[in-house]
């Protein structure tokens, strides 16, 4: 069975799991200037796709600048902290590494 989610229907608190089970798929919505505190997802590989806006994603000592249409892949074992340079929406897929 296929599952379909319409992202505009997922407005709300800014973060939400789109599908149950693995891989975990999360919609992240941040207002300009908002930041998610540094955190880790041990044992996972993460793909971040920016749907709209622009993010600075701090990964340990490195910062990756992403804009709408960019995708980045990185280890969840690192400290991760996205910050929105403007109102932004991203999809994050977390899979066992």
UniProtKB/TrEMBL annotation:
Source taxon at top rank: Archaea
Protein name: Cupin domain-containing protein
InterPro entries: Cupin_2, RmlC-like_jellyroll, RmlC_Cupin_sf
Domain Cupin type-2: from-to ranges: 29-88
A Pfam family this chain is assigned to: Cupin_2
């Amino acid at each position: 069975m296929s599952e379909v989610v319409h992202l505009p229907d997922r407005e709300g608190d800014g973060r939400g799991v789109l599908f149950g089970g693995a891989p975990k798929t999360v919609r992240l919505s941040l207002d300009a200037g908002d930041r998610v505190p540094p955190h880790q997802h041990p044992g996972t590989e993460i793909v971040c796709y920016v749907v709209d806006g622009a993010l600075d994603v701090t990964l340990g000592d490195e910062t990756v600048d992403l804009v709408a249409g960019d995708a980045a892949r990185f280890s969840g074992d690192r400290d991760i902290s996205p910050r929105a340079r403007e109102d932004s929406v991203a999809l994050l897929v977390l899979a066992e590494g």
